[in-house]
Amino acid sequence: MIVSYDSSPVTFTLPNGIRIIHKQCLGAVSCCGFAINAGTRHELMEEQGIAHFIEHMLFKGTTHRRPFQILNRMENVGGELNAYTTKEETFIYSIFLQEDYERAIDLLSDLVFYSTFPAGEIDKERKVILDEIDSYKDSPSDLIFDDFEDLLFAGHPIGRNILGNPACLDKFDNSSFVGFYNRNYSTDRIVFFSQSAMDLKKLKRLIEKHVGSISPRILKNVFPIEKPIAQQGVKKSLFKETHQAHVVYGNKSFSLFENERYGMYLLNNILGGPGMNSRLNVALREHSGLVYSAESNVTSYSDTGLFTIYFGTEQTQIDHCLIIVEKELKRLRENKLTLSQWHAAKKQLYGQMMISSENKESQTLDMGKSMLHFNKYDSMKEVVQKIENFTPQSLLEIANEVLDPKAMSLLIYK
Question: Does the first or last residue of the chain, that is N or C, have fewer Cβ atoms within 10 Å of its Cβ?
Fold first, then answer.
């Protein structure tokens, strides 16, 4: 198989502590933004939902711009301005034509470092987020994943719903946002990521002008982050007024800093990845006609991980589906992949990875997250080599560790 590899990005750290990762690329479209090491797990008990709320409030006014100026700045030139919050990070970024690069970096820097969290906008945005929560509750196939993480990591911040607790949201004011911001948005926990065809010298000048000019702010007494301890073998059913049952079955997996996660990616792709030939899709849909969709997923955090299987089915078919799922998990635990299966699985995963890497937005965001946690970005060649290191025997050992039926937990929406 012939695999082409992309060139390595440039990385450096500004005197103020902000790290930079930039990749020069072809094309008229550029993408850049900030990744901040601040998410759900960095919230205090009374702050549930504030990381996501701040992401919204960044668009509501700065010392230089009013909300309508922020919304129009990139949209008026055909660009896009986006943001999202995860359990461990906040991203704010833009996609635009190369000629508008300075417009984008100027706006993004303003939002991240000069937001004022105006009191007049807080109540309006609170209503928006409460409506977002209600909308999310109407999507059980999404909501069940949050409830499963809360089940698995019970009592730990990483198990919390990113959107937050309405009771907490009602109490947030300007001082709440300033407190969380000051505790988490330090320059040594921020990465600026970029991908553009712009000349590197010119781009560096823009970075120095708009990002390098930010005053350094490095916190010495960082709030301690406790490692979550996953519950195992927990089973729970919740009544939901839905037309079909929704099921998540899973266990803890490997963190971002454990190489075994690469082997788990390969196993996951075989079991329930995006391919229509995944074992779960074939067994549950193609052969049995019991589900419309079945999938498995691997999520890696900085100090833990999560493996999940999801399917939706008729209420009366839950047990039948679980028997089939367990049969497929048993195959992975007991039957070592043949050499032909191993090579085919790797080829499929590499193809998916290469196709995904052609998406400039997705790749640039991956660069930002990688720089935030690892202070580097692995090339496609390096990632492929890490996957190549896993043999059928080592994959069998990983399957027995993660897919142990005694450790698997279950959540059912009936």
Answer: N
Provide the pairing of β-strand 19-24 with 190-196: parallel
Does 4 score more than 70 pLDDT? no
Q: Which of 227, 226, 220, 228 is nearest to 183 (CA)?
A: 220
Domains and CATH numbers, the chain: 10-210 (3.30.830.10), 235-413 (3.30.830.10)
Where does residue 153 rank: exposed (0-12), middle (13-18), buried (19+ CB within 10 A)? Answer: buried
pLDDT in tens, 137-175: 899 999 999 999 999 999 999 999 999 999 999 999 999
Virtual CA dihedral for 162, 168, 171, 173, nearest 10 degrees? -20
Burial class (CB in 10 A: 0-12, 13-18, 19+), 68: exposed
Q: How many other C-beta atoms are found inside a 10 Å radius of the C-beta of residue 121?
A: 18
| Residues 260/156, Cβ–Cβ less than 8 Å | no
Residue labelled with tokens 């309508």: 68
Measured from the Cβ of residue 407, the count of other Cβ atoms closer than 10 Å reads 16
Q: How far is CA 345 from CA 116, 277, 342, 350, in A?
A: 50, 11, 5, 9
pLDDT digits (tens, 9 = 90+) for 239-275: 998 889 999 999 999 999 999 999 999 999 999 999 9
pLDDT tens by residue, 167-189:
999 999 999 999 999 999 999 99
Q: Is 214 helix (H, G, I), strand (E, B) or coil?
A: coil
CB 172 within 8 A of CB 205: no
> Which tokens is 361 given?
């937005």
Rg (CA), the chain: 22
Distances (CA, A) of 8 to 33, 76, 93, 381: 19, 33, 21, 10
What letter would DSSP give residue 391?
Answer: -
Residue 313 reports pLDDT greater than 90: yes
